[in-house]
Design goal:
single chain, alpha+beta, 60s Ribosomal Protein L30, Chain: A, 7-stranded antiparallel β-sheet, 4-stranded mixed β-sheet, 14 strands, elongated
């Protein structure tokens, strides 16, 4: 996704006495903004739009086949290398889909890939051909087009880069092509399929196909002192996911519970010496991440000492993103790398 948000002013009628107000007019944008000196107030053109009702979509009785239901058009491919990787399909994911210019989140099983031209025939990517081909195929499956209008910049601001870019929940959106995003819904008796794509003429595009579904949560057992002891005896360390406040060293309530278990471990084993080692993912500035990881490890140490654990048996170290457990290439992997390790010394 290319990031290039423009704040555009459109026609505003101003009184003559407001001489300090700057006036601009851009007829085709759906975001109204009035600029007064250095202050920009953005009004959401879609604020009063009614919520999308899936019941308004006619039910399709056409046999859809198997997920992700649609192949790339003839002489086009999914991804440049013509391969679909395990990262392209997720059992549970989120994407923001445009409905009449407004972005709404939908969750379920997703298929997110690039659209590329098979260049073996010497021809270039043609967005018009691809668009018409998908439209014909989707409508033949009983799909309904729910977006063919420009997405105002205010929608991108409302959702934010963290959701759309960092978490990749805006895969099928391009900040430079907000006036040309196509969205369809196929509703059957037991399925709700969302399809959205953008197309760069002569280049490529991006598409998301998502089957709406509910998350089957995973069982999570409590981290206990006995479990930590077993891990340390077996591996020389225990790897913990201790939750801290965002960009801070302060512990969240569930993080405090984990530290209580560490306290119990050390009080039950008074000769055990542990190095408390903080780790982060690679998001943001490396120096700040290293300092944050040290601050978090130090805070855990201080809480333990305040609970009566001997400071002589503890030390705090921060590594930042220098020692990842796995590659920082997905949100799930980055979560694994944000951790605290208790290492025996």
């Amino acid at each position: 996704m290319k990031k290039n948000i423009l704040t555009v002013s459109i026609a505003a009628v101003l009184l003559a006495c407001n001489s300090g107000v700057k006036k601009e007019n851009t007829a085709n944008d759906s975001t109204d903004s009035i600029q007064y000196k250095d202050t920009i107030i953005i009004a959401d053109a879609n604020a009063n739009m009614p919520e999308f009702d899936i019941n308004s979509i006619k039910e399709s009785t056409v046999e859809l086949g198997v997920f992700p239901y649609l192949n790339a058009p003839q002489s086009y491919t999914y991804n440049y290398d013509k391969k679909i990787s395990t990262n392209d399909i997720r059992d549970f994911d989120r994407e923001y889909f445009a409905v009449h210019g407004r972005l709404i989140p939908v969750e379920g099983k997703s298929f997110k890939v690039r659209l590329e031209k098979d260049r073996s025939d010497g021809k270039r990517f043609n967005s018009l051909i691809v668009d018409k081909s998908y439209e014909e195929a989707i409508l033949a499956l009983g799909g309904v087009k729910v977006n063919d209008v420009s997405i105002p910049d205010s929608e991108i601001v409302r959702i934010g880069d963290k959701e759309l870019i960092d978490k990749k929940y805006g895969h099928s959106l391009d900040y430079n092509l907000l006036d040309d995003v196509k969205t369809y819904v196929i509703k059957t008796k037991d399925k709700e399929i969302w399809i959205q794509y953008y197309l760069l003429n002569d280049e490529s595009g991006g598409i998301t196909i998502l089957e709406k579904g509910r998350l089957n949560t995973l069982a999570i057992t409590k981290i206990t002192a006995s479990q930590m002891k077993s891990d340390i005896e077996k591996n020389g360390k225990a790897i913990l996911n201790i939750n801290f406040d965002t960009d801070k060293a302060s512990l969240k309530p569930d993080g405090q519970e984990v530290v209580k278990e560490i306290t119990e471990l050390l009080q039950s084993n008074p000769t055990l010496k542990l190095s408390i080692e903080g780790h982060t993912d690679n998001s943001g500035d490396a120096k700040k991440n290293k300092l944050l990881s040290l601050d978090r490890a130090t805070n855990v140490l201080n809480v333990l000492v305040a609970s009566g654990v001997s400071k002589e048996n503890l030390r705090a170290v921060g590594f930042g993103a220098e020692k990842p457990l796995v590659a920082n290439d997905t949100e799930e992997n980055r979560a694994k790398n944000r951790r605290v390790e208790l290492v025996k010394f």
